[in-house]
Amino acid sequence: MLAALRVRMEPHVERWLLRRNPPAETVRLDHRRIFIFPTRAGLVYLALVLLLLVTAINYQNNAIYLLAFLLVGQLVVAMFLTYANLAGLRLRRGSCVPAFAGDRVAFRLHLQREAGRRHYAIAAGWPGQGVARSSLDGQSEAVVELYHDAPRRGLLRPGRVRVETVYPLGLFRAWSWQDLQLACWVYPRPRMVRPLPVAARALGAGRCSDQQRDEFSNIRPWRPSDPPRQVLWKAFAKQQPLMTMQFEEAQQQELWIDEVLVPASNPEDRLSALCYAVLQLSAQSTPFGLRLGGREIAPSQGLEHRRRLLEQLARHGFSGTPA
């Protein structure tokens, strides 16, 4: 019953939050964005105060009146301190650390305080995903990492992040739901395939670089046009005929990871196999390119090239980019 009611109320609550707290990359928490309510301990505390008041009224006991009013005053002070611990805090969206499907994505959240303010025991996160805790006392800014499950490939939008505190007495909980437009691409989960879906395209013979030497093929009699570096001078010093070493120029090749070479029929399986090939060739520091969905990414190497290819695999079939 309660679960069904909650499902029916969620769209209405989201629309209300959207009007009250629109999405933004940076947010300052104030009275319009902060909600406060007693915790379980606070409700027990309040029940105890009511019990003392009833007892004092029943027995007309001034000592019990005094104790009850002192506890009420402490409760009110705790409410204002809990609210003040969250008020004035600035939230700013940070970067994200992409992950593979089935792992957890890390989002960075920047907490900033205003001059003269202190914030203690601030918790941030999503329900069921764990929370990160931080305090702003001596430093003006703190960076916390929030983790969210990434069950599938594509663009992960975790939604509104919850920031809360129960400081100092734990009798009240002040919280805020803020949409910082957090989003991150989730890469396909690698799936091992043999052989790798890689095709090589010859570029033809050409002048080899310092890293790539010509291959030795044969020895033939010397000709006047032969370069001196190819002459077998040691053999000539031993009174043998002049001979020349003959080389074949190495054939330069381009490596391409190609979607059509993956035998899997399921699109996600194909992307997982391509992801595995990208990781394997990146580990070998070999220049390679990617052919996917009629689009080509030119051969290159390095961490930035690896990130670009993995992001292309994550984007395949989706539209839109992180905000």
- Proportion of helical residues: 25-40%
Strand content: 25-35%
What's the story with the biggest beta sheet? 5 strands, antiparallel
Number of distinct beta strands? 18
N/C terminus separation: 37 Å
Instruction: Please write the string of helix (H) and strand (E) elements.
Output: HEEHHEEEEEEEEEEEEHEEHEEH
What class, by secondary structure content? alpha+beta
Q: Count every helix, treating DSSP H or I runs of 4 or more residues as helices.
A: 6
The value of Rg in angstroms is 34 Å
Residue windows where pLDDT falls under 50 for at least 5 positions: 205-213
Strand order of the largest sheet: 2-11-10-6-7
Indicate the mean pLDDT.
84
Net shape: elongated
Integer tally of domains:
2
